[in-house]
Every structure is written in C-alpha cells, then in structure tokens.
Amino acid sequence: MVNLEGEKYYVADINYDHYTIRVVDPGVEKGNCLSTPLFFLTREIFYYYSTYYLEWKGMTSTAVLMNCDQPISDGSYIPITPCNATSSSSQAYVYAQVGGESMEVGDIKYSCTILRTFATGFLKPGNLSMSDLQEALLLGLELSFLDFRCKSECEVKRLYCKRNYSNYTVQCTKPMVIIGRAVLGILCLFAYLIYKFRRRHLSLDDDIEEFLHNYQNLRPIKYTYSDIKKMTHNFKHKLGQGGFGSVYKGKLRSGRIVAVKMLVMSKANGQDFINEVATIGRIHHVNVVRLVGFCIQRSKWTLIYDYMPNGSLDKFVFLDKGNNIPLSWERLYKIALGVGRGIEYLHQGCDMQILHFDIKPHNILLDEDFTPKVSDFGLAKLYSTDESIVSITAARGTLGYIAPELFYKNIGGVSFKADVYSFGMLLLEMVGKRKNVNAFAEHSSQIYFPSWIYDRYDQGEDMEMGDATEDEKKYVRKMVIVALWCVQMKPVDRPSMSKTLEMLEGEIELLKMPPKPTLWSIENHEQSMVEVPISSSNSMGTISLNGR
C-alpha cells in the first residue's frame, strides 16, 4: 500500500530502473462493472501538490461518472446503466465519459449531474466500452519518484537537480551556472517589459473586460487565487458572511467593482458550483446578476459577480434585517416587475429552459438604481425548451418557497410553475412585510401565509400602506391578486410567468380574485407525499431549511 493525499492505494508494480510505481484505487474490483475509484484523485494533485509525479501527460485521461435524467445517444458516453442494478431511480441513467488531459463544464450534457471525477490510464476518447474503462482502472496509474533520486544525488551535494522523465535520468548542475544565466535572461526580459509597458497602459483585465463587453456570449473569466487576493486587497473589505463562507468587496484593474464570494470547502457542493458557473455564465439580462468570473484552485472556490451596492431585497422587505429606509410601494412594484422579467427570461429567453428553484428575497440583489437582479443559480436545472414536465430526484429550494408538487406527487408534475409559486410567495412577503411561515406546517393551527394575506385583503385592510396614494394602492392590490394566483396549490391553476407579467402590468379592474389558498388541499394529499431528500445550497449561501 502507498499513501497518496491521505488515502491508501494498492501498489501493483514498482520499477526501480525507471523510478516508477503503478498504483490502483482500492475501490476498483476485477469483474465488478459497478466498481469505481473511492477517492478523488486527479492529475493536478500530482503536478502541484504531491511527492509523486505522473510519468508524462500523454499517459493519463480524465474520466467523469455522471447521472443523467434521460438516455444519451452521444458515442463518447459510456453507458453503465445495464449493470447498475442497485440504482434507486428507474429514471436515472448512469454514464461515464472519458476526455483528454482535461474536461470543460460545457462538455457535460445539460441533463446530467456529475457524481465523481478521477484519473485513469490513457484512453483514446471515442467509442469506448465499460470494459475498456474497467481495464484502464485495473491497470492503475504509473507515477514517477525521480524526486528521491534528486535528493540522493544532487540535493545532498547542494546542486540543482534537473529531471528528465522521458529517459528516467537526473542531471546535477552547480547553482552559480544557473544563476548567471538566469540573471542575464532577467535583465533582458526587464528591459523588454519596460519598453512594452510604455506603449501599453491597459492591463490584461481591461482587454478582457472590453472583449466581453463587445462579445457578450462568452463564458466567465477564470481567475487565479493570486488574482483574487489582489482584487480584494488581501480580503480587506468584508461585505457579509453566511454558512457558505464570506463575501468581499473587490476591484478589478480596470476599476470595475465586484463582489467576491469565497466558499468554504467543507460546506461547498461541487455540483452547485458547476451549476452556478455553467448556468449564469450563459445569461445576459438586465434582471439577472452577471457572473464576472470564478476561481477553482485546490481548496479555493470563488465566484465573482458585479457588485450590488444596495444588497439583497430581504433587507428592505423585512426591516428587522437592518436599518434600511423602507422602499415606496411604487419602487416595490417596479422591483416585482423586474424580478418577473428576469424569471420569464430564464424560462423562455434562452436556448435552454432554466428553472431556478430558489426564488426568494435573499436571492434578489439590487444595484445602485434598485434594479433587481435574480441571483444564485446553485440549484438551477437546465432543460430543453420542448419539455413541459421535468424530472428531479430531490425537492429543491428553501422551505416556505418550495412549490407543493415537489413534495406531493398527485398535485401535478414539476415544471416552470415551481418558480411561479416561489415568485408568488416573494410577492406576498413584499406586500405583507413579514416572513412567510412554513407553507407545509404539520399543524393546521399554524397560520398559512397566503391565507393570512387573502383574509386581510378580503376584509379591506390596507396592508400597512400608511399615506399611500391611490396609484400606490392599485400597485399593492395587483401584487396581492397576482401573488394569490401564483401560489395556487395545483400547478395547472397557476399562470405562466408571461401571463403573470401581463397581469402585473395590466389594469387592476381586469383582474379576478382566485380561490382562497388553504391547507386542506395539502392535507388531503399527505397520503401521496413523495419521500425525497431536499437539495439545498447552504454551501453556496442561498438556502436554509429553517426558512431563512
């Protein structure tokens, strides 16, 4: 056995002439098509952090194990569903995909969820079978330990060690020879840089910023951790902190102000991170927050957004969250319209249908003009625009905002109407100026928030509107009626996001009151409740299962 990054691996072979060792993950079993590596082992670990080194780049491949919602006809996907007898869902399709030295997020199909990533012996991407992958895993990875020869032959003599992995040799060189050549090279390079600096004032960041401005269909920028430290001035200005980690104020070299979200690795979810980058990176809309870039560097996971100086909407809706001045009803109405337009764009404005699954005040950010931006796509799912009903394996979102069909199978299928329900709850909170309670309370004595709003409106109460003008009262009435339509228990009774916007923008006289939302319909479905786990993005700082 040999210890690599704290995990034990089987030693299949040692070649003392070539200074190589071949290791096999203990999770790989001969004859078992279900067996996959137990540990997260990638080539990058060896290149930067380990005592051992892969022999050379061309001898390894990257393999990704994934769970897909539908069959994949792509020849590069290795199906392993036929031997997956223990699969917990008949709707799940398990595949493996083998790439070259690295794989991009964009290489993964939208309906697939990454389960595990690992390195294998070299496999030529193409029409591979499960047996090909299994054979490569059983063969293991060949690593070099030339470092030990460097120590024994060069470093003990205080000589510089140059490794040659192609012929398994090392060359010892006197440091002064190296230093002399290096100094000369540095002087020439320094003179060249001074010349270039005088002719060019824009930094690389400025060039990228301008390029992205002109070609807005590009992906977010990948930054290094060193870049992150520079833009935040070594994390000097902290904007906030949550269970996911901390957010810092930063500044790019171009002068652009950004918000830098540093994730805590122990709480971060890899799939949430991938969803955030892959989903929001393709979106460009005035009411959707812009992802400027990201960083993945070992344990440093970072998301970089445009800075929103007015923070999140919850601080203005729930005044106990801070000392913010209450927004006018007209301003709240315009914010509601902006949020609705952002959600409508996600549902219909892209080449893929994007379901957010976590619409709530905390995830609505406000810029300097109070323009709302839908944020946090850690739980988002992408589907074909042709799909009216989608399949998910877990209820997603924050309790109190989760649509009932994610829990109760007989109410209706899961669709874009789930976001409509969450939007309705958000509108009710904006009007009621209080947090919504658990919409799925076990005891009927607990107040159901939509019913509470309905009763107040039906009794002619003014929702604490104070000295509101007649126009502002119309805004509030529209928000209440539209919200009550959005939170109808059955998805079929809710409007689409386009229809919701049409009602919000239309005349109050044309709106009809919907049926009163009550708990009895939920209680009638308790026998058909789906026992599913709840996917939350606590790791991304946008979810809490206690409602806030």
TrEMBL record:
CC per GO annotation: membrane
Membrane-spanning residues: 176-195
UniProt KW Chloroplast keyword: no
One Pfam family from the record: Pkinase
Alphabetical keyword list: ATP-binding, Glycoprotein, Kinase, Membrane, Nucleotide-binding, Serine/threonine-protein kinase, Signal, Transferase, Transmembrane, Transmembrane helix
PANTHER family, alphabetized: RUST RESISTANCE KINASE LR10-RELATED
Name of this chain's protein: Protein kinase domain-containing protein
Organism: Vitis rotundifolia
